[in-house]
Amino acid sequence: MDYLCCLSPLSQRSLNFGLLGWTIAISFIPLNNCVAKDMGYCYCSVVKIVTAVIPVAPILATTTTTTTTTTTTTTLAACATCTESQITFVSGGTQPGDIPMTNGVVTVNGCAQITVTCASTNGNDVLMTFNNGQGGPTSGTTATVSATLNCVNGAWQFQQSGVTETITSIECMQA
Predict the structure, then answer these.
(1) Which of 70, 80, 93, 121 is the most buried (most CB within 10 A)?
(2) Where is the C6 domain (predicted)?
(3) Residue 124 CA to chain centroid, in angstroms?
């Protein structure tokens, strides 16, 4: 089946013209389920040859207006796609130092970065662990521990002493 696809619907679905004493009528019928939707508005063509002369309206001059639309697409760098929701913050208890704190994601040199802090309010030492107890930043004994995570290829990573670890959860615990 031959069909015609357009970016917008046809404003006139039939066309009549004379040729050597014959009148040819072409009608365009919308297609519903035979062509993929991303092809726009599609129509089947039905051609009829009529032996009698059908009066045809004179062709009037038309004006064509062309509109240009510019679409700007911004693609984020892979290091800018991380969100705070990719990290599970686990409370290691009920004390204020047991709750990981953050000021949210910031952008540094075009890449996402987040700093997480475990801070004791009563002077006790705190410990920060990553990914359900798989270690954390080493800072000795202190009442405040912070870790800065950088977004790398869409995942949060922590680097210390030449070791890089992908972080999915952070827990604070007081000693």
Answers:
(1) 80
(2) 79-172
(3) 44
